[in-house]
Amino acid sequence: SSDPQPIEQGQGLNYLRTFVFTLFRRGPIKLGMAKITQVDFPPREIVTYTKETQTPVMAQPKEDEEEEDDVVTPKPPIEPEEEKTLKKDEESDSKAPPHELTEEEKQQILHSEEFLSFFDHSTRIVERALSEQINIFFDYSGRDLEDKEGEIQAGAKLSLNRQFFDERWSKHRVVSCLDWSSQYPELLVASYNNNEDAPHEPDGVALVWNMKYKKTTPEYVFHCQSAVMSATFAKFHPNLVVGGTYSGQIVLWDNRSNKRTPVQRTPLSAAAHTHPVYCVNVVGTQNAHNLISISTDGKICSWSLDMLSHPQDSMELVHKQSKAVAVTSMSFPVGDVNNFVVGSEEGSVYTACRHGSKAGISEMFEGHQGPITGIHCHAAVGAVDFSHLFVTSSFDWTVKLWTTKNNKPLYSFEDNSDYVYDVMWSPTHPALFACVDGMGRLDLWNLNNDTEVPTASISVEGNPALNRVRWTHSGREIAVGDSEGQIVIYDVGEQIAVPRNDEWARFGRTLAEINANRADAEEEAATRIPA
Question: Which GO terms describe its cellular component (predicted)?
Fold first, then answer.
């Protein structure tokens, strides 16, 4: 049959009118159900091939061909000419070169919060990956160790592990304080004072270094406008770092913030500190802890880390109604939040307490002939309680051992030939402490072995003055900071760092021997006086 002729627009309208008029003339119409048959006529397929889309025919097994014959795939409809032209325009647009950002748009992206956060996080990860060094030639059979056996034995006591130094942030700055994180043992915070050669840089800097990765740049860089004299990780708050400054302000940095400047700071007012703060320490428990700070005018303040606008408590450390004690160092016994010891500029040592009817200075201990540079209470917990012991270092070239039960030193260690700048007990070994001096020497003293000479000594290359020493919490590594802004980490040999089971009992006997010798010396001195 021939295809029906199309009806023109005008003819269709006339035809419809005639049809309706005829229906009305016939009268009522009977309606009924009609059977509808739906027929689908697929559009005619137009197949075109181009050189770019034609592919070679792969030989397939007959089974696959039969399966493909059974599957009926819907045929794509014919695209109108308009859509084809639109698609061609879109394809040509996609191939066009991307929009070139203006200098202003680039700067806007570079300074956006999202980009800075992403870049800071990403560079830290990339630096870690680039700095990893793995010895693929390590021989597990031990052949390499045979040649190096002599070297291993020679360096078994103290061996160099890492060095931390930053050309911009630590060069020509004195390391004023060191502290290891209790939550992340691989993190070390170091505070630095001002760099006189860089007057336009911030006076105060605190850098967080990472021992876990081999990267040579600090994990975090913090700074403020006054030299940082002391710094500590805020115990129970792993993201916070506290700094005590030369101006008297206490500053708080947060590594969750993209800012390198403090997120909180104390006011410079009579209610807080107005003199240099050489001592900051977080004491207490997870649910009840405070930040304790002492300045060189003898003022001690207790703070809540949530609010540094005003101290919770403050008092002045004065001995027997005389002038205030110029505090240079402070230490709390393990587990004690009330009693503490302080060293002073005039060379005296004091015990003090924060609360109670006798709050303030309790006792004075005399023995040093110069300012106290470091003080530390016994830290190793074991079978015998030695928390009454503490050690001090001084400008008088000595380290002294004390007990809170006697205001005279138990023993004086006099092996140094320069100022002794810092001292610290081992956190794990009862008879072991470390000290550093102005000639670049680190000494480890094991009192169970010898009280006359150090058990191990090492000098930093270049012999810079070593200003600070800090054991890791494991007692297996020790960090020292010098006057040139460099931090050196040493591994301590197992035979020195790890205590044997009988070390506490042996140290008890060592102390008894020291006390007996001191009593004999005092008795001998007393007999000489009348003569």
Answer: cytoplasmic dynein complex; microtubule
Pairwise CA distance, residues 84 & 62, whole Å = 37
Burial of 298 (0-12, 13-18, 19+ CB in 10 A): buried
pLDDT 10s digits, 281-323: 999 888 889 999 999 999 999 999 998 999 999 999 998 877 8
Sign for the CA dihedral angle at 193, 197, 202, 205 comes to negative
Whether the CB-CB separation of 46 and 78 falls below 8 Å is answered with yes
Q: What is the spatial distance between Cα 112 and Cα 38, in angstroms, rounded to a whole number?
A: 62
Q: What is the residue type of 103?
A: E
Chain Cα centroid distance, residue 12: 85
User: Edge-to-edge strand order for the sheet containing 406-413?
Assistant: 372-377, 389-394, 399-403, 406-413
208 strand-pairing partners: 189, 220
Q: Is 301 helix (H, G, I), strand (E, B) or coil?
A: strand
Number of structural domains (the chain) is: 1
Handedness of CA 178, 181, 186, 191 (dihedral sign): negative
The length of the chain, given as a count of residues: 531
Q: Is the CB of residue 228 less than 8 Å from the CB of residue 208? A: no
CATH code of residue 230: 2.130.10.10
Position 100 confidence tier, pLDDT thresholds 50, 70, 90: confident
3-state helix, strand, coil split of the chain in percent (to 5) is 20, 30, 50
Range of the domain at 169: 155-528
Residue 10 located in a structural domain? no
Please state, in angstroms and as integers, the Cα–Cα distance from residue 156 to each residue in 101, 143, 149, 150, following that order: 59, 19, 10, 10
Phi, psi angle pair for 518, to nearest 5°: -65, -40
Residue 115 lies in a domain: no
Other C-beta atoms within 10 Å of 483: how many? 16
The residue behind tokens 């009454």 is 388
Facing residues of 299 across strands?
A: 316
Measured in whole angstroms, the distance separating CA 150 from the mean position of its chain's CA atoms is 37
In percent, the amount of the chain with pLDDT more than 90 equals: 58
**Rounded Cα gap, residues 366 and 347, in angstroms:** 7
Which residue, 317, 326, 375, 371, is CA-closest to 347? 371
Residue type, 287: N
223, part of any domain: yes
Q: What's the whole-number average pLDDT of the chain?
A: 83
> 329 phi and psi, to 5 degrees?
-155, 155
Which residue type sits at 476? R
What distance in Å separates the CA atoms of residue 190 and residue 164, rounded to the nearest whole number?
A: 10
pLDDT band of 94, cuts 50, 70, 90: low
C-alpha to C-alpha distance for 201 and 205, rounded to whole angstroms: 9
- Reading the block at residue 193, the tokens are 């004072």
User: Is 275 domain-assigned?
Assistant: yes
What pLDDT is recorded for position 322?
Answer: 79
